[in-house]
Design goal:
This protein has 164 residues and is of the alpha+beta class. The protein folds into two domains: 12-52, Arc Repressor Mutant, subunit A; 65-150, Alpha-Beta Plaits (2-Layer Sandwich). It has helices spanning 12-23, 29-36, 40-52, 65-72, 89-99, 126-138, and strands spanning 76-84, 105-110, 117-123, 143-150. Strands 2-3-1-4 form a four-stranded antiparallel β-sheet, with helices on one face. Strand 2 (105-110) and strand 3 form a beta hairpin. The longest helix is centred in the first third of the chain and has 13 residues, at 40-52. It is globular and about 55 Å long.
Length: 164
């Protein structure tokens, strides 16, 4: 997704709002306004502007896979390197488009040098991972190589963008 950043200007209040929302998106507008030292209506307008500009993509809840594992069995995280047979723009875009609807693919990065893509995959178990591999990688003639690393423990997860 590309945005025109020509009209995008962020002042210290905007940056403070963004920093606070990254930590707790459930904060009330009144509390947010008080912490950034502006009125509640001003704060609300700024958050709406940042959302309309695409700086704030969405408000989500970050779930704990470790706590859900005993309840749902969703316990296998894999970091997957994918190398394609060709690196032309169309092949790369086609692969990205195939990854977008895959719910097990949490993150997809086009990288360089090395493999063409690095994916973060979250599945229930090894059987679910193998099914994903068959469906997404094995049946794609453009995929040349897949290398997976399986997480044994998550020691840090911080989706915040550094603003300072």
């Amino acid at each position: 997704m590309e945005f025109n950043n020509q009209n995008l200007e962020l002042d210290t209040v905007d940056l403070r709002i963004l920093d606070l929302l990254q930590t707790d998106a459930r904060i009330s507008n009144q509390d947010l306004a008080a912490q950034v030292h502006v009125s509640a209506p001003t704060c609300l307008r700024r958050v709406k502007r940042l959302t309309d500009l695409g700086v704030i993509e969405r408000h989500i809840a970050v779930l704990s896979p470790d706590r859900l594992k005993p309840l749902l069995g969703c316990g296998l995280t894999a970091i997957v390197e994918v190398t394609l047979t060709q690196q032309d723009a169309q092949t790369l875009q086609t692969f990205e488009a195939r990854m977008a609807p895959e719910s097990a693919v949490q993150q997809c990065y086009r990288v360089s040098p090395g493999p063409d893509f690095v994916l973060v995959v979250q599945v229930r178990d090894m059987d679910a991972y193998l099914a994903l591999v068959q469906r997404v990688f094995t049946q794609d003639a453009q995929v040349r190589n897949v290398k997976a690393y399986f997480s044994v423990a998550r020691t840090k997860f911080a989706p915040q963008v550094v603003l300072k």
